[in-house]
Amino acid sequence: MLNIKNLHVAVGGEEIIKGLDLEVGPGELHAIMGPNGSGKSTLGYALAGRDGYEVTDGSVEFDGRDLLELEVEQRAAAGLFLALQYPVEIPGVNNAYFLRAALNAQRKARGEEEVDSMAFLKTVREQLKALKMDEALLKRAVNEGFSGGEKKRNEIVQLAVLQPKLAILDETDSGLDIDALKLVAEGVNRLRDENRSFIVITHYQRLLEYLVPDRVHVLSDGRIAESGDRSLAQRLEREGYAFLDTAEA
Amino acid sequence: MSALIEKLLPQVAGEDDGSFGALRRKAQKVLMKHGFPHRKTENWKYLPLGLLEKRTFSDAVPDRAATPSLPTYPFEAGVIHFHNGRLDPDSCRLPDGVSLTGMLPADIDVSALDDTGPADAFAWLNLARFDQGWKLRVDGRPDEPLVVATTCDDEFDVAVHPRLCVELAEGATLTLIETQGGPGAGLINGVLDLRLGARSSLTHVIERCFAETALIQRTAARVSDAAAYRAFILDGGGPLTRQDLVAELVSPGATAGISGVATLSGRALVDYHTAIEHRVGGTESHENFRILADDQSTGVFNGRIHILRGADDSHSQMNTGNLLLSENARINTKPELEIHAEDVTASHGATIGQLDDDARFYLRSRGLSEAQAIALLKYGFAAAVFDTMASGAVRDWLTDRLKEHL
Ligand SMILES: Nc1ncnc2c1ncn2[C@@H]1O[C@H](COP(=O)(O)OP(=O)(O)OP(=O)(O)O)[C@@H](O)[C@H]1O
Ligand SMILES: [Mg+2]
After folding, report:
1. Going by DSSP bridges, is the β-strand pair B345-353/A215-220 parallel, antiparallel, or unpaired?
2. For residue B223, what are the CA distances in angstroms to A139, B197, B351, B399?
3. What is the distance between the alpha carbons of residues B178 and B175, in angstroms, rounded to a whole number?
4. What are the domain boundaries of chain A?
5. Would you say the CB of residue A53 lies under 6 angstroms from ligand 1?
6. Which of A82, A173, B224, B376 could join A48 in a cystine, given CB atoms 3.0 to 4.6 angstroms apart?
């Protein structure tokens, strides 16, 4: 599904990702943990193709294609989704309108028909209900005035409607109360199947009790410093990242 | 005599053309004395009047083409149609409760015009040169809006000076929709007087975009007891679009609202000067104006709120926002609050910003193309201005037009 080789990414002329390798197979869920500022969000942005995140070396293959060749919106249409650590407020743009426009733009890029608007509304309503979100949020401007937790849940609504092949969740669990965390995890678990992959960036092992990862990686100073199974997350929870220094020393 | 005077004021030799003679002579005199505004005239410094000097305006209104085509609207409405500066009687249809008659001298009030300098020269020019003035009278509450459509064709290369007065009787209600556009390289120098009787209510929509036509428009609304004036403006500008909009709140309970969006591209220019005059206490106003300027366009907004001495317990709110979409575009915004009364609340905020990179990335990351993302962000920035408009077919049409303007 995703194959990253020796990836180097510079932001503002400074190298942040310094030779990263990562392979995520179809249906797999990988967790990425790591200290603040280690480059987790930078990796997400670089994969999504954001301007200013310059790939200076390496390759990324996504679903058989060269991901780095594609524009941001082409990556989305190809099936890549990034749930942002800080979802953006878009004043004046209706949430439901935006979501439908996004879905239709992706479908058009893939040569598919526009979505039927009744069917679309039905899907969105179901997702809102599953995430215990007020339907009124559909009529509001995208994320504007949403609480922190509502913004995060709105990302999951988008994820569920857009049905990507690979979803990168950047700290979607941060700022959620315990019940909301469970709802979000359930939302993600409903979407898991043998073809859809996830990269879940998180600081907390708690999320990984609900979303059982196939692999856990520790990102440190722009590289994968350690990989393991879910027990690695438990170890990090107990010991913190101190062992990284001793490992490198 | 300036070049513009020679160009725009030739035929009025001071001879009496009937009942308007005295007014026309006065206008002529003021114009000859003070001439047209120039770069140093307050409130006219951003307007490239040189463009008018460069053009030649032929003397005669072009003959009427077969049937001038009228824009279509997705709602039932009465229509008054001006084509190339002349009323096209065939396409007019008035809603019940609205009458249209020729203007009389008594319908013209020049007391508000400045005769001590060139600031109101174009309004004087209109008075000196207008062809046939019209007066709309509204009694009751027509259930349809009334469209006043101004169109022109390629042949339109004259200077015309349309003059219209709209009078709302006590308790009357009207939605007046001005739509203006066309390709001709003439000049429209219009004057529109709006008079709102006690407890009347006027929703005044302006939707315009000119390719080559220069427009200089003065609109003045006089708002009496508990009457409500609401303007909703969508302006795509033109080579030279100047709009003066004055709302005078002359009796307690009078309110005015101005909500405007200018969407500019190419070399379009708009120069807006609004003034809300709180003449007495217990009056309220709000104003919200946004300019989106792309390419090499220029947007000027000067919004003045004037609360006169003794107009205590008045409230006013102004908000302006601007979006610069290109390095070569220019926006100049100046909110002016002038307060001489007590127990007054008045506020204004002004910002000039650019498209938010985070927002653009966010939309694209969900699949929208760069162009779609930009269009949506522009729309989001502008559309909120029309939130205060009553929902319905006219508002839907206006927001659709906004999407097209963008
Ligand atoms: N636009 C930028 N300009 C300069 N430096 C940047 C920019 N964006 C990120 N960085 C730097 O890159 C490094 C990695 O940032 P990143 O946001 O990827 O960290 P993170 O691992 O997601 O951290 P956190 O856990 O706090 O979210 C940080 O040192 C940050 O300051
Ligand atoms: Mg981060």
Report:
1. unpaired
2. 35, 7, 30, 27
3. 10
4. 2-248
5. no
6. A82
Q: What is the CA radius of gyration of chain B?
A: 21
What CA–CA distance (Å, rounded) separates B116 from B31? 10
Which residue in the block uniquely carries the two structure tokens 């000196």?
B128
Ligand 1 pocket, residue A11 CB under 6 Å? yes
- For the Cβ of A41 lying below 6 angstroms from any atom of ligand 1, the answer is yes
- Lowest-confidence segment of A112-121, A178-187, B66-75 by average pLDDT: B66-75
d(Cα B307, Cα B190) in Å, to the nearest integer? Answer: 27
State the pLDDT at residue B1: 45
Paired tokens of B192: 């529109």
CB-CB: which of A51, A84, A105 is closest to B362? A84
- Residues 189-248 on A with a CB inside 8 Å of B are none
Q: To the nearest 10°, report the CA torsion of B364, B366, B371, B374.
A: -70
Q: How far is CA B64 from the centre of its chain?
A: 26
Which amino acid belongs to residue A173? Answer: D
How many C-beta atoms surround the C-beta of residue A35 within 10 A? 16
Q: B402 touching A, CB under 8 A?
A: no
Q: Does B379 sit within 8 Å of A73, measured CB to CB?
A: no
DSSP per position, A156-169: HHHHHHH--SEEEE
- What is d(CA A216, CA A203) in angstroms, rounded to the nearest whole number? 12
Q: Where are the domains of chain B?
A: 2-356
Beta strand pairing status for B330-339 and B86-87? unpaired
Least confident of A149-158, B60-69, B228-237, B321-330: B60-69
* Consecutive H or E run containing B246: strand B240-249
Closest Cα partner for B286 from B330, B344, B346, B351? B346
Element (H, E) at B298: strand B298-307
Sign of CA dihedral B378, B384, B390, B391: positive
pLDDT at B216 over 70: yes
SS (H, E, C) B53-79: HHCCCECCCCCCCCCCCCCCCCCCCEE
Quick one: pLDDT at residue B48?
87
Give mean pLDDT, residues A12-39.
96
* Residue A145 CB partners (closer than 8 Å, separation 6+): A89
Residues 6+ apart with CB under 8 A from B182: B150, B151, B152, B153, B156, B210, B211, B213
Cβ distance of A105 and B372 shorter than 8 Å: yes
Predicted confidence at residue A191, as pLDDT, reads: 95
Q: How many CB atoms neighbour CB A50 within 10 A? A: 20
* Binary contact (B376, A84; C-beta < 8 A): no
- Measured CA to CA, the distance from residue A92 to residue B387 in angstroms comes to 10
- How far apart, in whole angstroms, are the C-alpha atoms of residue A227 and residue A232? 8
Q: Domain A2-248 in CATH: superfamily? A: P-loop containing nucleotide triphosphate hydrolases (3.40.50.300)
Q: What is the ipTM of this complex?
A: 0.96
What does the pLDDT look like over A28-71, one tens digit per residue? 999 999 999 999 999 999 999 999 999 999 999 999 999 999 99
Q: pTM for this structure?
A: 0.86
Pairing between β-strand A90-94 and β-strand A141-142 as defined by DSSP bridges: antiparallel
Query: Regarding beta strands B78-83 and B86-87, do their DSSP bridges make them parallel or antiparallel, or are they unpaired?
Result: antiparallel
H or E stretch including B401? Answer: helix B393-405
Q: What is the largest CA-CA distance in chain B?
A: 70
C-alpha distances out from residue B121 to A8, A39, A211, A234, B354, Å: 66, 64, 74, 80, 36
